[in-house]
Amino acid sequence: MRGFLNLGQFALGVAFLLLGLCVYLFDRNFVPFLGVPADVYIDVSLDLGVVSGFLPSLLHPLSYSLLCASAVRAGRRNTMIICGAWAGIHGLCELAQAETLYPWLSMVFEAAGRDQGFVRYLDTYCLLGVFDFRDLIAAAAGCVLAWFLIGALDDDRRKRNA
After folding, report:
1. Which residue range is the domain that position 62 belongs to?
2. Could you tell me if residue 39 is inside a domain?
3. DSSP of the chain, one letter per residue?
4. Overall pTM surpassing 0.90 (yes/no)
5. Does any domain span residue 121?
6. How many domains does the chain have?
7. Would you give per-residue pLDDT tens digits along the chain (162 residues)?
């Protein structure tokens, strides 16, 4: 066994994750999600236009799928499970931003201790986020792209190790 991680998948996953983070840092006002006072925030917007709206929804499931696949023997079955799981997780996060679900989620957050750490973050995410069907499409596209990349990079590793 040469190595635990598929370094190609891992490196690509980290690169896509950093690109998604850059969109948040330089094209969006992420301050409300972090609880940082608005007067501390310095606007460094790049204004990526229409692309910035769905780019994180494409990049995050793509990067998470690549990172997870880098740590396991991919294969078709595992790749489908990994990509499907991240598509589902992202889909649930997107649906949680729908206005019609927030009253119910608000009761759940209240019962879980709304002002407590991660629950506070989820509450802010759901309250300030905006549901967009295009984000669901972008997440699905990111997972399909991940499926192809995982297969291609896994095939390359198998050929080198043969």
Report:
1. 7-94+139-161
2. yes
3. ---SS-HHHHHHHHHHHHHHHHHHHHHS--HHHHT--GGG--------THHHHHHHHHHHHHHHHHHHHHTS--HHHHHHHHHHHHHHHHHHHHHTT-TTTHHHHHHHHHHH-TTSHHHHHHHHHHHH----HHHHHHHHHHHHHHHHHHHHHHHHHHHHH-
4. no
5. no
6. 1
7. 456 788 899 999 999 999 888 787 776 665 555 555 555 555 555 566 656 678 889 999 999 999 999 998 768 889 999 999 999 999 988 998 888 888 888 888 888 888 888 888 888 888 878 898 999 999 999 999 999 999 888 765 555 554
